[in-house]
Specification:
alpha/beta; TIM Barrel; Pyruvate Kinase, Chain: A, domain 1; six-stranded mixed sheet; single chain; elongated; M1 Pyruvate Kinase, Domain 3; eight-stranded parallel beta barrel
């Protein structure tokens, strides 16, 4: 099954969608990667969901990726003796380490790290910014604040300190447990939430040890400030607009999205745009026109993948949401202006053999007689380099590794397939031609450009560009 679109789709599995028949239906409708959200459900739920993904993959005959999304540290206030309070404008309100249930004048905040990061004048956002407090005095145990934006505040609502790096570990005990479990059941990607600094990704890489690809979720302003260094340490990145939008003003989120996309595209790092893409389809069978435009704009920007969250995890219309996103992406990519946008920006290539081969393939692919490109790859580097150039022809990523194929299911324009390891150049050429013909991307006598590395099976050794032609069918 060859995608009729270049941008890929990620769908979150949950109570509305994790049954095997529903996973298969979502994959048939166009999902390329399934997200297991460890902020919800129990580990056994995610294990069964992954089994359903692998079963759907076997039925469809194309690789499907699985992304484990770790919850990360959730900063929350304590409880109130009445369940909630209604704060008034300009009133005083205290946060402290006392676990006693709160009242109209104070509430517990069981995170001493937050007090260490506060200074007088700091603004605290509670309940996704619905309530705002300004710190007037603070020490290591408490903070007095003035209510800037009043409203109802209930038990255990989230709290954020915009513009500050919180001195705390990126992973909680729950995250460590979930990570070990996710790696044990064989996920393909692991996403780390609330990345603040490059060291957070370095720590994750050490824990994963190559057993999955690692992804940074950019949802903190501090991560934006250190974006280039974070990208050096991750295999993929997610524009997590929900929490990013809590700590940034609304008008700052679109420029942040474009900054992340451009930086990731320059490096060939796959990037997902996520959160509220078709939010209204949680309860409606059709999206708003603004949501359709939001999806289309991410496609015009060259995002590798677009993600559905609650729309498929718990919404009333999971299958309709996937079909709608598929329709929007396909229609956007048929726009006569879209190819020009994909060709408008090519990253500067490094002075090495692999980039020279990719550049030659890109130029050769501009010929109208080129039917498709084929990248033989051990761990995915050759294929990702090719995708970074945004070629409009189909790109087959052929690999003997099922793990590599599943990780590449996330990458723009790639059609990963598992093949046997070639024995020599002729065997490589034969396999490339056979797959291109079998998948219907090379017409009779169509030119096939093959990129590979020799000796075969050596990661990072892209050094070969070969031309072949599909056979004539008389």
């Amino acid at each position: 099954m060859i995608r009729a679109r270049k941008a890929r789709m990620v769908a979150t599995l949950g109570p509305a969608s994790r049954a095997p028949d529903k996973v298969l239906a979502l994959a048939e409708a166009g999902v390329d990667v399934f997200r297991l959200n460890f902020s919800h459900g129990v580990q056994e739920d995610h294990a069964r969901a992954l089994e359903a993904v692998r079963a759907a993959e076997a039925t469809l005959g194309r690789p499907l990726g699985a992304l484990a999304d770790l919850q990360g540290p959730k900063l929350r206030i304590g409880a109130f003796d009445t369940g909630f309070v209604s704060l008034e404008p300009h009133q005083s309100f205290r946060l402290d380490l006392d676990p006693t249930p709160g009242d109209q004048h104070r509430v517990g905040l069981p995170h001493p790290q937050l007090f260490k990061a506060m200074t007088p004048g700091s603004v605290l956002l509670l309940d996704d910014g619905k309530v705002r407090l300004k710190v007037t005095r603070c020490d290591d145990h408490s903070a007095d604040t003035e209510v800037l934006v009043a409203g109802k505040l209930s038990d255990r609502k989230g709290i954020a300190l915009p513009g500050s790096v919180i001195p705390m570990a990126a992973m909680t005990d729950k995250d460590h447990s979930d990570l070990n479990f996710a790696l044990r059941i064989g996920v393909d990607w692991v996403a780390l939430s609330f990345v603040q600094r490059p060291a957070d990704m370095a720590d994750l890489r050490k824990l994963v040890q190559g057993r999955a690809a690692v992804m940074a979720k950019i949802e903190k302003p501090s991560a934006l400030a250190d974006l280039e260094a974070i990208l050096d340490l991750c295999d993929g990145v997610m524009v997590a607009r929900g929490d990013l939008g809590v700590e940034l003003e609304p008008e700052e989120v679109p420029p942040a999205q474009k900054t992340i996309l451009r930086a990731a595209r320059r490096r060939g790092v796959p990037v997902i745009v996520a959160t509220q893409m078709l939010e209204s389809m949680i309860t409606s069978a059709t999206p708003t026109r603004a949501e359709a435009s939001d999806v289309a704009n991410a496609v015009y920007e060259g995002a590798d993948a677009l993600m559905l969250s609650a729309e498929t995890a718990s919404g009333q219309y999971p299958l309709e949401s996937v079909r709608m996103m598929n329709r929007i992406i396909e229609r956007t990519e048929r726009d006569p202006r879209w190819p020009g946008l994909m060709d408008a920006e090519h990253p500067s290539l490094e002075d090495d053999d692999a980039d020279a081969i990719v550049a030659a393939a890109r130029r050769a692919a501009e010929s109208s007689s080129t039917a498709c490109l084929v990248a033989f790859t051990a761990r995915g580097a050759s294929a990702r380099r090719m995708a970074r150039e945004r070629p409009l022809q189909p790109v087959l990523a052929l690999t003997p590794s099922p793990d590599t194929a599943r990780r590449l299911a996330l990458v723009w324009g790639l059609e990963p397939r598992v093949v046997r390891d070639p024995t020599d150049l002729e065997d490589m050429t034969s396999q490339a031609v056979e797959e291109a013909v079998r998948l219907g991307v090379a017409p009779p006598l169509g030119r096939i450009l093959i990129v590979a590395g020799v000796p075969f099976g050596s990661p990072g050794s892209t050094n070969l560009l070969r031309l072949a032609h599909a056979p004539w069918k008389g």
